[in-house]
Amino acid sequence: MTQDMLFQGWGGLVRTLIVGTLAYVGLVTFLRISGKRTLAKLNAFDLVVTVALGSTLATILLSKSVALAEGFTAFALLIGLQYLVAKGSVLWPGFAKTMRSEPRLLMHRGQILHAALRHERVTEEELLSVIRTNTGAALGDIASVVLESDGSFSVIPKPGEGDVAQFADADLPDRG
Questions:
Q1: Looking at 98, 122, 137, which one is the last position of a domain?
Q2: What spatial distance separates the first Cα and last Cα of the chain, rounded to whole Å?
Q3: Could you tell me if 88 and 124 lie in one domain?
């Protein structure tokens, strides 16, 4: 092993400390200004922005070829685009439909919807694992399973006496 692999000098460490602190403060400031919606992983686009922000922060910290001002510009661009997509989704339903997927029922009234599983590329074994992981309940005790637009699963138990089941506004595919 060469010394360069383990330690390249104090200058790099000092740069990382200074630029890292400033980049962190800048990112937190951008996020506070842009609001909670920026990091709410409500759909795939939101998740991509969150991951991209983290990747940008890492690049600013570790790449000497990326100036702090360029990193701040990248933060502003990502957050600005996310804002425009979210705003456009609120204003134009057609745009919203293009940008996000709808929740989909994978199991309804205790019946596995095999066509929905195929469409969403989820195996029956994965569905059963989700049920076990989320509730530990028997298959017969589950009313529905919804694959949400952010990729998470909602497992809805059968209502007890007097309970009212809350179902997501999800596509109900053919039972095929």
A1: 98
A2: 60
A3: no
